[in-house]
Structures are given as structure tokens and as C-alpha cells.
């Protein structure tokens, strides 16, 4: 009998690529879903090896109350900076032998799962690296410090904000704000551990020890050329199948004013003399 979506036990036919791509995409989504933390833009047209220029804007100036016969003393402006990003292919490889499949079919499924997790971790690490570009700070990692940081962000509503913290930073937050943190039951599925001041809190190993970020989802974009693409090659002599999974994307900070950081160089207090 054939194994659905995997192998034909009579002739050891490899995975169907379409089934495999769907499987990898679904696993990317069900892990710590970075779609919660970044906006996805499918407009990427550059090819691997090229560079994409990301332009970020910062508003300057303000409106003024004017009396009769008086005019503005400052202008409203939009300053911008350009940053170049390499467009790269991110790829993983998982080889296995027919004998492994016959001995333990579950091990092959696990290999595909680990391949997906590696792609997920890569996206997470790139997102956290872009969060480091934030211009705001969280003075103290407690309820008051987070409320103050929210007030400094340009968004008037916090419906697309989140807190992404390391385990040690979250432990600090738990101790200082335990009366304000609300807990939920879907931590295992999404990594969401609660909320403070209406902002959901997530924990990730990709965040450096002692650091945490408060950010708006629109602060970082993932420019994607395509979803997960798979390819397989077969070495009949060795009875070996190799599965490749890859994607082409650029993760970039597009609005540094929508990110506040605690810990590290940006959030440490100056030592007393």
C-alpha cells in the first residue's frame, strides 16, 4: 500500500514536490509565526546576488498655533535613509537512504520537520537583527516602563504591537509585573505567553539574553520573491534521496521609530561614577 503524500512502498517513489512544499509552508506557519511580527510584501523582483535598496522615512517638524500676521517658523519634512540588502537564497538540505525509510518512516518525516524549523529559525534571527535598528528605548522592563515606551511610539493604537523577549528578560518582566500579566493557553502552539498593557508578549531564543523589544508589526517587512520551493535529487546507485528547501526573501527594518529596545547598548543605564 502506498504511503499517502510520501512514498509508494512498491517502488520507493520520492515525495511529491507539491505535497512537500505545502508541508514545509504549514510548518513554517505553525512554529513561532513570524507573520505576527513582520509585514509580508510579495513585490520582491530582484534575483539572488542582486541588492535591494530599502528607503526608510522619518518625519520632521510640527504644526504651530499662529496669531494674526504670524507665519510658520518651521517646515514639515520627510527625511530618509537608504540601506542596501543582499538578495540571497536561503536553502537547507536533508538526505536520507531507502534503508532508513524502510526501517523508520517517521524519521524521514522528522527530517523534513527539522528542515522547516531551520528555515523558521533563520527568518526569526533575521527579524530580530532588524529590530536592533530601533530608535526607541524601554527604560525599565516593567509595567510602567512598557507603558511609557508605548506612549513614545508613533502609533495611537497598539493593536499591531508586540513584545519579543529573551527568556531572561521575560523572567525579569514576570517578577516586576506579575500583577499585570495575563496568561493564555496557546503558548505551546504560538509562543504567546501573555500580555501587558494590552500588548502580547512572546519569547524567542533568537533574542539575546537580557534583551526585549516592543515593536509594531509594520516596523519590519519581509520582502518575498516566492514561498518555500523544494527540489529533490535521486542517486539510484546509493538508494539515496536528497530533499532541498529554499526561499528568496529580504527582511528589513522600514521604520525604526516603531521599535523600542530594552537591554544591550541601547537600554542599559549609565554606570555611576
Describe it for me?
This protein has 273 residues and is of the alpha+beta class. It has one domain. The chain is 28% helix and 31% strand. The protein contains 7 helices and 13 strands. The strands form 3 sheets. It has a 6-stranded mixed beta sheet. Strands 1, 4, 10, 11 and 12 form a 5-stranded mixed beta sheet that branches. A two-stranded antiparallel sheet has the order 2-3. The N and C termini lie far apart (76 Å).
In short:
28% of the residues lie in helices and 31% in strands. It contains seven helices and 13 strands.
Short key terms for the protein model shown above:
273 residues; alpha+beta; 6-stranded mixed sheet; 5-stranded mixed sheet; 13 strands; flat; disordered N terminus; disordered C terminus
Amino acid at each position: 500500500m502506498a504511503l499517502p503524500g510520501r512514498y509508494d512502498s512498491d517502488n520507493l517513489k520520492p515525495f511529491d514536490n507539491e505535497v512537500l512544499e505545502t508541508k514545509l509552508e504549514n510548518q513554517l506557519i505553525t512554529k513561532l509565526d513570524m507573520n505576527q511580527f513582520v509585514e509580508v510584501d510579495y513585490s520582491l523582483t530582484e534575483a539572488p546576488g542582486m541588492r535591494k535598496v530599502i528607503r526608510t522615512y522619518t518625519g520632521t517638524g510640527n504644526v504651530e498655533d499662529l496669531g494674526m500676521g504670524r507665519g510658520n517658523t518651521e517646515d514639515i519634512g520627510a527625511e530618509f535613509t537608504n540601506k542596501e540588502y543582499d538578495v540571497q537564497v536561503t536553502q537547507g538540505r536533508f538526505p536520507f537512504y531507502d534503508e532508513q525509510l524502510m526501517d523508520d518512516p517517521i524519521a524521514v518525516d522528522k527530517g523534513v520537520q527539522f528542515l522547516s524549523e531551520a528555515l523558521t529559525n533563520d527568518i526569526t534571527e533575521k527579524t530580530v537583527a532588524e529590530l536592533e535598528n530601533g530608535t526607541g528605548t524601554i527604560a525599565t522592563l516593567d509595567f510602567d516602563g512598557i507603558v511609557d515606551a508605548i506612549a513614545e511610539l508613533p502609533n495611537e493604537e497598539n493593536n499591531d504591537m508586540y513584545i519579543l523577549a529573551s527568556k531572561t528578560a521575560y523572567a525579569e518582566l514576570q517578577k516586576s509585573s506579575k500583577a499585570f500579566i495575563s496568561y493564555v493557553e496557546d503558548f505551546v502552539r504560538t509562543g504567546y505567553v501573555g500580555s501587558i498593557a494590552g500588548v502580547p508578549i512572546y519569547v524567542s531564543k533568537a533574542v539575546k539574553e537580557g534583551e526585549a523589544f516592543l515593536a509594531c508589526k509594520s516596523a519590519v517587512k519581509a520582502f518575498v520573491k516566492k514561498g518555500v520551493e523544494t527540489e529533490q535529487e535521486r542517486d539510484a546507485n546509493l538508494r539515496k534521496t536528497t530533499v532541498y528547501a529554499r526561499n528568496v526573501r529580504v527582511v528589513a527594518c522600514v521604520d525604526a521609530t516603531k521599535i523600542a529596545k530594552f537591554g544591550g547598548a541601547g537600554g542599559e543605564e549609565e554606570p555611576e561614577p
